[in-house]
Design a protein that fits this description.
Length: 124
């Protein structure tokens, strides 16, 4: 059941939109657009837990992201670290082109990737 939602958008050629909701106590961050050095700050803000709450859990739905550069990789690593040691960050719906990049840099063993948000939420 969805608890809250908010929308953030950035204008310009590098448009990125981030929709944040809460489903059964898990933050779901839905991202649409390209993630690069111009837009990565918005993603960083969305993936960083609001406070030092132990056990914070977040699913980042990247199904609407066709491109991610090293700035996005760094944001995912920082997001993963911000959820440690008792919480987690999971990725859902990662497109093949972005997934290939994540695999090349060795991020997929660190941050679990799921085919859909539902799959990421159901995994225990």
């Amino acid at each position: 059941m969805a608890d809250t939602a908010e929308m953030n958008e950035q204008a310009g050629p590098e448009r990125l939109s981030v929709f944040r909701s809460t489903i059964d106590g898990v933050a779901v961050v839905t991202v649409t657009g390209e993630i690069d050095h111009h837009t990565s700050g918005m993603l960083r803000d969305a993936l960083t837990p609001a406070g030092p709450a132990p056990g914070t859990r977040t699913v980042a739905d990247l199904s609407g992201v066709p491109f991610m550069d090293s700035s996005g990789i760094n944001v995912l690593i920082a997001g993963h670290q911000a959820h440690q040691p008792t919480g987690w960050l999971r990725l859902a719906g990662v497109r093949q082109s972005v997934l290939r990049t994540l695999e090349i840099v060795g991020l997929t063993p660190l941050i679990a990737c799921y085919p859909s948000v539902r799959d990421a939420l159901e995994e225990d």
